[in-house]
Amino acid sequence: MLETKTLCPDYQFIQEVESYGTFGAEACFQCRKCTNGCPVAFAMDLLPDQVIRMVLLGQRDTVLSCNSIWICISCETCTTRCPNKIKIAELMDGLKEMAIQAGIACPQPQIRTLHETFLKNVRKRGRVFELGFIQKYMFDSGELQRKWNNKELRYDLKLGLKMAAKRRYLFKPSKINGKDEIREMLAYAFEKKNKP
Amino acid sequence: MKVAYYPGCSLEGTAKDYAVSIQGICTRLNIQLDEIPDWNCCGATSAHSINHRASIELAGRNLNLAARPVQFGLPHADLLVPCPLCFNRLKTAALALEGDQQEYYRITLPDSIPQIWDIANFFAEDNMLRRVAKHIKNPLKNLKAVCYYGCMANRPPEVAEIADYENPQSLDRIMENIGVTAIAWPFKTDCCGASQVLSRPETVSRLVGKLYDMAQRVGAQAIVVSCQMCQANLDMYQAKISDDWGKRFDIPIYYFTELIGLAMGEPDVKKWLSGHIADPFTLLRELGLSK
Question: Which of A156, A179, B11, B32 could lock onto B2 through a cystine, CB 3.0 to 4.6 A?
């Protein structure tokens, strides 16, 4: 639950957020349909409707450091059901991008590591090489260590061996001719600071 | 019939079984899948989560490649996409690159691009249902299943261009066409947790367990999917999720293409199914649908 405190509204913040994409957040009338349909609301520190409210009130630090923007799974249920056509899942993405650019510590570091590891993998060859990506992610995110500590690794190892026996992995990564194009594309996208 | 085909990265790896079943039934149905030359990753969840520009441009490059004339002929009219996330990203990119902010991106689309099809919707078209019906040798009578659509083939409806997004029917129609009883259930489009299987496995356990539980309660013997991410989450961790829930879930997760192949009497179906983790064979044997 949110603690009670006095807020100082900053109505400029919404302009900055909306420059990251046209989300239409100002149309929110707090019906909470987004939150009611959200499959992962149980894990969020700010519910989806509260994220939007806080954006409208210009509570920059609160929204950019909440775990909700990272917990959001992009299932698009909220965007689909919003009676005011606010692109809520897309807004969550915009806020993640803003949080990274503002250098705010990610409350769900393994999720951020997952996305970054994935894109680094795409950058190498133009396509994702699952085996390499998953291994790198497990090490870099600390998930391997966590699973080891919680004795959860056995299931994963057994599953991995089973998958390998069933030839469900690609063992030799595929590479595309346009990989330099992809590399340049990603480099440019990460250099640019703003969105339309 | 020839269509352009964008398999996506996972169909080269963990979803190879989906890829071979698609190839198998398309060969039998005389549909030629022309893979887009030199296609790249669509960017998936990771690109749109942390870099909007990258998500549009990565997917956009594929649309450009797909719009090229084939050899010396015309470009393809249709682009078939088996992975619902790739489908969603390609559709999103097409909207952005044809929209009023197209100038912002460094990819320009030609005047016309092929129609982008989610594979389940493609096979649920009347002409495709008829085409499949002609090849059916063993209708899968007695098999009762729920169809699970997941998120990305239907949402948001403006992107997916779907009318029945809260209660989609494509897979149900495909199943009824091959003799399967498709049971109505409320969780057709509830999320499986997708990539959080790696970053927050407990979330996936909670969401997928709910799906198993409801599927069993409505009397389904199997769950039918068209998304390889859903298939992975429902198939690979079933034993683990059973432990988490303290309940035994024992429910095969079939790709709709595998069941079409089975109904058409394809000789390789057993090989396709052998990639599954949750036992796909016992049920089929019990129902007399496979030896």
Answer: B32
